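Researcher: If convenient, please comment on what follows.
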Amino acid sequence: MYTFIISIILLVAGYFTYGKYIEKMFGVKEERATPAYVNQDGVDYLPMSSNKNSLIQLLNIAGVGPIFGPIMGALYGPVAFIWIVLGCIFAGAVHDYLTGMISIRNRGAHLPELAGKFLGKVMKHVVNAFAILLLILVGTVFVTSPASLLHNLMNGKVSLLIITLFIFGYYILATLLPIDKIIGRFYPIFGALLLVASLGVGGMLIIQQVPIPELTLANLHPDQMPIFPLLFLTITCGALSGFHATQTPIISRTTQTEKQGRKIFYGMMIAEGIIAMVWAAAAMSLFQGANGLNELLATGGTGLVVSEVAKVTLGAVVGTLAVLGVIVLPITSGDTAFRSARMIIADYIKLPQFSMKKRLLIAVPLFVISIALTQIDFNILWRYFSWANQATAAIALFVGAMYLFIARKNYWVALIPGAFILYTTTVYILNAEIGFRQSLNVSYVAGAVISVVLVILFFKAAQKSRAAELSLEVDISDYRNIAS
């Protein structure tokens, strides 16, 4: 219990200390007009309040990641708490803040455009394809997982196909309509449901004095459970997730002032870390250890674990409401995944999104592909998602490091976590069944060589960009519409 409570305190403290440092180091400009005003189009670019943006951001980035990932990560024991806390404060929240703020400085640009500007033109094309692949995988995974949860919640009384089609129908509307029509209107309600559910579970763990395992030297490295690299790809959204780099530009286009960035981008990642802590702790403590959790996962997957945790801690009625809060998570990330994919493709091919016809031109093929992917086993999709997710995080952190290097600011805050997750992902791909199937020892060495080479190339490119005085920001001369 002490490890759990201290971890929550550290996450909150991280927002007020390291988060404040990152904000000060980056250097916000309150007087600078944001894309919400300069590029206002009534569809994707329009100003919304910081509270509304914060809840939308939280739901955008959350998905099933901070719940399903930590439940699987709970199999490693309390060492998972370390990754959630350190990863969230020093990697995930920094990743989200830099991505959001650099996007604001560049007219709400998405990751492919930022990668092209700061890492080279070739990277723009690579990241564009990579981001779209990731978003389609996310959108598909976040159709199948909530559909399955709803199917179980209704005891199979409504067919899985009908539920899936209903969710797809909602996604289509959320992807095509102006952001304030559905997302801006309903997300605050969904966000409240999510927060109440997670705080309810966490509160009951403490009130009921559930014996949450403590971190000790003995369980720091679980038997026959190699922590590296699997733990860091199992728990992603609760600590560090590249998917967030595809979502923050949605909100960078609706943020009123740069000063709101720490609350919206850094703060909501901390909130996600707290959610991850709650579900990891519950999974570790309510099923008689890893063996009991494994048996439950084998019986009904992570969806059954979610249902059992909610019912045990909150009772049948309130527990059902908590499960609904969990179902909201993937749905409210799936819709913005498709929306983000539409925006990225539109930016790439320079197709304005004022008219519905042009939005349909991009959205229809995306949904056709996603529907086809729903026929693939969920576990296979999740493996590819995990790898693509953390590879995207590495790219986003290197973009942030390049920006800070050119600006002559502390680029190590992004480069260190970026290099770490680059190495982690490289080792995983070299070793994994879906990768090159090398031994762990070979993967460790080869991964280190590849990572070092890429970091050296980064420094060479950074020195060249600094010498060329690459512009960090898009010039904005119209300050007349700054929010009062």
The radius of gyration is 21 Å. The longest helix spans residues 316-349. The mean pLDDT is 89. Residues 2-394 form a domain with the Amino acid/polyamine transporter I fold (CATH 1.20.1740.10).
